[in-house]
Amino acid sequence: MEIDRLIEISQDLGLLNESAQLRLIRERTLNNDCELILPLVGEFSAGKTTLINALLDSEEKLETATEPTTATLFEIHFGADRCHAQIIQDDGETVAVEHFTDIKNREVKDSLVVNVFDTSRKIPSSIILVDTPGLSSPVAQHRQVLVDFLPKADAILLVMDINAQLTRSLTDFITTMELAKRPVFLVITKCDTKSEQDVQATVNNLSKECKLPLKQIVCISSKDGNMQRLYDLLASIQQEKSSILSQVNGQRIKNITNAMISHIDEMLAASISDKELKQAIQEKEIELRRINNKIDRLVNQSQMAIEDEMTRINRQFEDTAFTRLDSIVSAKSTNYDAEAVLAINNLASINLNEFKSSINSIIMDQCMRKNDTGIDLQSIQGVDLSQLNVDGLSYNLDLNTIGHEYDSHIALGVKVVGTVAAVAAVVATAGAAAPAAAAAGTAEVGTAVAAGAEAAVSAGEMALGAASAIDTVTDIGSMVSNARHTSRVESAIRYASEAGKQYDNINQINQAVGQQTGQNKGFIEGMVGFVTDKTWGKPQRRRAIHNYLDETLMPQFKNAMNMNCNQVINMIKELLMNAAQVTIAEKKLALEELVKQHETQKETFAQRLNTLRDYKNELLTQ
To answer: DSSP states of 559-601 as a string?
Structure first.
């Protein structure tokens, strides 16, 4: 059947969308210079934009993104007279851009399309490359752009990073969208990071294991300019343009024809009589309830799969969090708490992103299943995973002080030991040898601080000297009237004075040695901290993180993930319910129009039924 006849039938049936598609196919068939639309499809960070930049003549390059930022399509046109761009905004207004570097992804995120015109002649001017959002993007709008645009594609350039894998979510997406019926070419990027043997091994494995009917595999490297194989591929696609368009347009016409036949069948089945028509309308309400029941079963299947994945992520987060925190508290650090908070946030983000990726795979899997709901399951591609988060994880530890609560008291004790030892040496040599003894006492201080051990050995002497001093002070009342006792008081005063001097000396030497060894505290405090950290600090920190994981972090993380799970399930159910209501509403409207004709224009109604039957016969012979 001629395409003009198909357009005529679709218009008479009121199928405006199908009519528009058929007119576009006719225009492209009649135009020998029609353009080939080749989208680059791949996971986020597969190197699509970098690949396009390597093809541009312009020294100004498009902005590459470190995170998914825009759902806007970038259409790259080659063979232009000059390099420039046009931004088509959502209101239809066109904004001219002279420099590619002025195009910022975040600024064009709400635009419809960005047309980039480059002067390169290495690529046929009839080929339009389209940079699409990464398939792994968690933003629903990004995936919806892919779903809406890819049926317009004439062939697919599947882009894969050689250091990654051809993911199941990507191949499932291509299969689900029936894009595999179009020519699919695999472009492997970043091949400069592998040896020639490894590159060839990757190609061989993909050729054997990939379930997609790949037409050709080419390996490139944008970094070192190794792009010739891609140029050759695009040239061969240009040579096969007629064959490609014939294949793709034939499939498009077949799909449109089937949709028209299905529409006619529904109209005829409901048009036997006025009673059947009204009953058919009532049955649409019953059908909606039946579809809703099937949706409930579908949602339950999705919920089970998502909950299983949530449980796996919870276990994985707990294991990795404990391992990471344990390694932090077991090592030496100047700020345990800062490292722990950073590690927790990073792990939470990594596990959440893995959860989102798993949900994408689950959604793809549901779309691949046999569909008996009567509605388009592609609607669940609209689940907006960007709304998911694990905010609110609190941190209530103080790892920096655990095990060091008594360090200052212990350090003070060590200083007292050194002070008494030094004073005992000075007092013992008082008298004629006082100057020499004072020098010896000072040397004793340095020795006590540097060695530490000698101060501990002198502890017994310290205790005896301290006891003697205390006895002297407490007996002052009974010694005042006694000359012998007066001399003891004078000795006690000298002892106390000397002790103060020696304690100051110890503090000075302690700080000086600490600075020389690169510490921000005294040498004695550092030595005490080292011993107490090994003895008490590490075991107590480990117990603290055990308690923190069990009592705080994991309950909060599990609660956040449970909320995410429920949110995804609710979104899936809402999208499916809305799709069901739209489908039923369209069918009811068409039936209600037939009821009006049947009641008021019986002859016209009968003619209409005959026309529908004739249309069906014509379409079946297509």
So the answer is: HHHHHHHHHHHHHHHHHHHHHHHHHHHHHHHHHHHHHHHHHH-
CA distance 248 to 420: 97
- Cα(152)–Cα(252) distance, integer angstroms: 10
Q: What is the 3-state secondary structure (H, E, C) of 45-90?
A: CCCHHHHHHHHCCCCCCCCCCCCCCCCCEEEEECCCCCCEEEEECC
Phi, psi of 430 (to 5 degrees): -65, 160
Which tens digits make up the pLDDT trace of 317-365? 999 999 998 888 877 777 878 888 899 999 998 999 888 877 876 776 6
The enclosing H or E element of 502 equals helix 483-516
The label of the residue with tokens 């063979």 reads: 79
Total residue count of the chain as it appears in this document: 622
* Complete edge-to-edge strand list for the sheet that includes strand 184-189: 94-97, 84-88, 113-117, 73-77, 127-131, 36-41, 156-161, 184-189, 214-219
Is residue 236 classed as helix, strand or coil in its secondary structure? helix
Q: Tell me how many degrees the CA angle 326-330-334 measures, rounded to the nearest 5.
A: 110
pTM score, whole prediction: 0.52
Contact 349, 549 (CB under 8 A): no
Q: pLDDT per residue over 83-124, tens digit each? A: 999 888 877 678 888 888 888 888 887 788 889 999 998 988
Give the count of alpha carbons within 13 A of 273, CB side only.
2
Q: How far is CA 457 from the centre of its chain?
A: 60
What's the token pair of residue 432?
């004629």
Question: Distance between CA atoms of 544 and 325, rounded to whole angstroms?
Answer: 10
Q: Give the whole-angstrom CA distance, residue 515 versus residue 517.
A: 5
Q: How far apart are CA 413 and CA 279, in angstroms?
A: 97
